[in-house]
């Protein structure tokens, strides 16, 4: 490619602000999307944008979002000369052997660093942003991830001139008149591959062993006051340099020679492949995932039904107690960590919340009743959509927070802002695999660590790794995946493209066959709220035919049980849940009829004839005679005893029954005494009396003051309307196109105002300072500009106190206002004169 002549080549930028000024709107927009913190709030001009891009917090955030190879590129620039050329950077990354994979990947990595304003300048003058260099460059307090130490110049900064001359002479170099030239000569020696090879050829073998131990870092070592001969040989020639009493360092130039030019021991230009451990037929995966989805819905419904009349109490510090979580786990028949996940999922979906009462408890929300009426697939999509976006992390339950307090389910401290991004990324990696392919979990974690490497060896808590492990297990629980592979409805939930086709020769002979995958997964877009709603609806449509149809019948058996061979229609399930107790769950649910369960149905207002008719209508088998006898027997005794308010009383037409109660020792706690042959008075309240008599085996019924039997129905306790908890954002949100366009216009306008040339003597003394003129001078200059049509530079403070610089062409001045064409906003505006801090005329050649 032809090179531009020196005259045609644009001048190299002298600062990051100048480099940003040379970008087009597309490039600036890419920067603001990748680093949204830079427009929170919108900078006034490009100089302020560059300043913000160089702040420590923003640079750290940007570095933490680089993949491993791009971060390695930035680390190599931090140990290169400032500025460095592209060839120097390539040498540090690819080494003397010129690794072709590194050479191919380096332009892309450098492009990312340029796009994110971490590197600026052309290929002949690459500069790492100063803050990034300070963070990544090696120092005794913060060793470089490259394992390199300081340069010869940095290591000899505090060394005496005489000692430097001794090192130069011993290394075989001519002595010099000053330390600067001596250090330069030593540096040239260490960077000359041929002369260094000759020097090291003379080194004793044990001295070379010392260098081998230090070459890949850490580069620091300890020596005594009288170093051993192998160390003395290295110290005399500057191959090791003292940095502090008893401490020596391997100079960077020496290490790079020993490494054959590599800044990193193992550059990783290619992302690690996601390995596939098993491949199943897509129909098997989808069917398994649908079964899990049905189980997920049943589990959430069972949880909410258990809390329908008011759930566990809210701890003073918030959340569930350990005892209540254990009870919930027993009720759901799942381990406690899984119970915590279901509870947190229902909370994230807005189905449960604290009721806000004085004695605060958890309860279902009104949204639960709406959710329960939806078709099964839509209920599933709402749960999974809430899971994808939730920042609350159930896997942390039972752990400890920073203050060593136990983290409880539904309690504070469970939000992790990275959770949604990790879940989406894990599923995206699965979406890039062939249909039915189940990945090795460790290979997924390895890939994620490459995409977001841990910064610093001191970070032992790999939160992203744990989030990824939880995402894989939770996706299986929810039915997003089946047998470890992403299902068709799970793929639709992500808005992912069709899965890669699998070649016939790759078809496995069994589910355990391994199929290595070395391609990059197809990128999966991040969806907006509207796009996610469309994707969720598409997932629900794919799941619908895979879910079992609810049944309208059960199979009654002679052992007082009923078998539901599948999911039941809601009215049938609700009534049967009152009339019988669930004995076992699974592919088929077994219900058992007991005297207590039948009495529960009678207490809820059902009569014996109602129960007989119900069973006859919904049983595919004849109603067994023992069940008929059970219902009739309980119904005959139901209400035979009547309990009312005295404190409480019991009345019965059969005085023998009352005599039996009085003679029973278990009735002593009730404080009963006979008032009449058919009436007993009690010292306890009616509710306690009812419970006591039922515990003794009787079937009493409550009655009103008029003597009518009171029908007790289950009371569904609901919270007031509640909104689902908002996810905790992971930094500022990515700007949409509208906000981005407005921000770019504002930044360009402010930059135009701040860089427009002014007439000599009118510009402020300090760059960025607003012009200052008196009110009379401001008014006179404005009026003159109206007559001449000239543009002016003004400083303006709006009603919120925000200051800005503008270039305007005054059209009319009257009533304390100036109407002008604002060149920075590209529209006509009116400004109060009292808010204009000053005015200055533009130079004649101002564009």
TrEMBL record:
User: Which range is the signal sequence, renumbered to this chain?
Assistant: none
- Renumbered to this chain, the Low complexity biased-composition regions fall at 496-511
Q: Where is the WYL domain?
A: 777-839
Q: Where is the Helicase XPB/Ssl2 N-terminal domain?
A: 554-676
- Which species? Streptomyces chartreusis NRRL 3882
Q: Which Pfam families match?
A: Helicase_C_3, WYL
Q: Which protein are we looking at?
A: Uncharacterized protein
Task: List the residue ranges of the region (Disordered).
Answer: 496-520, 751-771
């Amino acid at each position: 490619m032809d090179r531009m002549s020196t005259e045609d080549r644009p001048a190299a930028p002298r600062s990051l602000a100048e480099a940003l000024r040379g970008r087009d709107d597309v490039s600036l927009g890419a920067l603001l999307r990748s680093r949204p913190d830079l427009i929170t709030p919108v900078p006034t001009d490009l100089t302020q944008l560059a300043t913000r891009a160089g702040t420590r917090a923003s640079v750290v955030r940007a570095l933490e979002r680089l993949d491993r190879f791009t971060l390695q590129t930035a680390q190599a620039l931090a140990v290169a000369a400032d500025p460095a050329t592209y060839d120097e950077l390539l040498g540090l990354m690819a080494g003397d052997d010129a690794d072709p994979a590194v050479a191919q990947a380096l332009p892309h990595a450098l492009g990312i660093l340029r796009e994110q304003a971490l590197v600026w300048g052309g290929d002949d003058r690459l500069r790492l942003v100063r803050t990034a260099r300070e963070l990544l460059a090696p120092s005794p307090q913060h060793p470089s991830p490259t394992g390199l130490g300081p340069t010869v110049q940095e290591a000899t900064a505090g060394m005496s001139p005489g000692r430097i001359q001794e090192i130069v002479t011993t290394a075989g170099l001519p002595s010099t008149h000053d330390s600067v030239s001596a250090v330069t000569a030593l540096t040239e020696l260490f960077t000359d591959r041929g002369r260094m090879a000759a020097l090291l050829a003379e080194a004793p073998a044990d001295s070379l062993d010392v260098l081998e131990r230090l070459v890949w870092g850490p580069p620091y070592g300890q020596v005594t006051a009288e170093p051993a001969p192998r160390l003395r040989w290295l110290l005399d020639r500057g191959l090791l340099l003292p940095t502090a009493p008893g401490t020596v360092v391997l100079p960077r130039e020496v290490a790079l020679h020993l490494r054959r030019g590599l800044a990193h021991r193992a550059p990783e230009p290619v992302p690690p492949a996601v390995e596939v451990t098993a491949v199943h037929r897509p129909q098997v995966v989808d069917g398994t995932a649908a079964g899990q989805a049905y189980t997920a819905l049943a589990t959430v419904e069972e949880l909410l039904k258990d809390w329908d009349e008011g759930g566990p109490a809210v701890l003073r510090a918030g959340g569930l107690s350990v005892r209540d979580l254990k009870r919930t786990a027993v009720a759901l028949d799942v381990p406690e960590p899984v119970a915590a996940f279901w509870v947190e999922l229902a909370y994230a979906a807005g189905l449960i919340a604290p009721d806000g009462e004085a004695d605060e408890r958890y309860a279902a929300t009104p949204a639960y009743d709406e959710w329960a009426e939806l078709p099964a697939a839509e209920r599933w999509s709402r749960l999974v959509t809430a899971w994808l976006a939730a920042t609350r992390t159930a896997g942390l339950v039972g752990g400890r927070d920073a203050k060593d307090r136990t983290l409880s389910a539904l309690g504070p401290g469970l939000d992790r802002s990275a959770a949604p991004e990790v879940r989406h990324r894990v599923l995206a990696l699965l979406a890039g695999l062939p249909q039915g392919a189940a990945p090795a979990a460790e290979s997924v974690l390895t890939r994620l660590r490459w995409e977001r490497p841990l910064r610093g060896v001191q970070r032992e808590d790999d939160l992203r790794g744990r989030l990824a492990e939880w995402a894989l297990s939770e996706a299986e629980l929810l039915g997003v995946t089946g047998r470890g592979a992403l299902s068709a409805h799970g793929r639709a939930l992500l808005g992912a493209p069709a899965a890669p086709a699998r070649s016939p020769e790759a078809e496995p002979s069994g589910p355990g066959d391994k199929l290595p995958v070395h391609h990059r997964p197809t990128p999966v877009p991040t969806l907006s709220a509207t796009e996610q709603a469309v994707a969720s609806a598409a997932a629900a449509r794919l799941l619908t035919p895979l879910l079992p149809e609810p049944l309208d019948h059960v199979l009654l058996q002679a052992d007082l049980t009923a078998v539901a061979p599948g999911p039941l229609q809601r009215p049938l399930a609700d009534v049967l849940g009152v009339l019988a107790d669930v004995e076992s769950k699974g592919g088929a649910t077994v219900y058992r009829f007991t005297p207590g369960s039948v009495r529960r149905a009678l207490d809820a207002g059902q009569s014996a004839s109602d129960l007989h008719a119900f069973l006859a209508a919904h049983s595919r088998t004849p109603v067994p005679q023992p069940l008929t006898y059970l219902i009739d027997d309980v119904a005959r005794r139901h209400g035979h005893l009547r309990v009312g308010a005295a404190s409480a009383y019991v009345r019965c037409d059969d005085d023998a029954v009352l005599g039996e109660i009085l003679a029973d020792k278990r009735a002593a706690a009730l404080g009963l005494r006979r008032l009449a042959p058919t009436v007993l008075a009690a010292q306890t309240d009616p509710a306690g009396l009812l419970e006591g008599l039922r515990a003794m085996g009787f079937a009493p019924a409550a009655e009103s003051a008029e003597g009518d039997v009171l029908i007790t129905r289950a009371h569904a306790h609901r919270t007031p309307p509640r909104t689902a908890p908002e996810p905790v954002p992971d930094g500022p949100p990515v700007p949409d196109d509208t906000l981005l366009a407005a921000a770019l216009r504002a930044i360009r306008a402010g930059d135009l105002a701040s860089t427009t040339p002014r007439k000599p003597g009118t510009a402020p003394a300090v760059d960025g300072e607003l012009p200052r003129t008196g009110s009379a001078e401001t008014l006179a200059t404005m009026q003159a500009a109206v007559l001449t049509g000239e543009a002016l530079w003004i400083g303006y403070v709006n009603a919120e106190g925000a200051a800005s610089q503008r270039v305007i062409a005054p059209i009319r001045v009257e009533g304390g206002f100036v109407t002008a064409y604002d060149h920075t906003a590209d529209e006509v505006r009116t400004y109060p004169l009292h808010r204009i801090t000053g005015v200055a005329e533009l130079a004649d050649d101002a564009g």
